[in-house]
Amino acid sequence: MAATTRITVTLPTEQVAELKKLTDNVSAYVAEAVARQLRLQLLAEDLRQYQEEHGAFTEEEKARAHEEIFGSDEATRSAEAA
Question: How much of the chain, in percent, has pLDDT values that exceed 90?
């Protein structure tokens, strides 16, 4: 198990109420949310650095990446129609 550190976090009352509806383990839920945000920030930095070195992504590259991540528009339409 990873080492942990206890901290105090202040959240709006409404968010805490919603969290408690979703999970019995608020700490684990928040830890996963923080991990996800950190991964997104690291990815954004990697993408920024790549573009700084190689130039901006083309529309074709962005479309291909979108298809890899989300599937093709045709597949999405077929799934929605079913």
Answer: 84
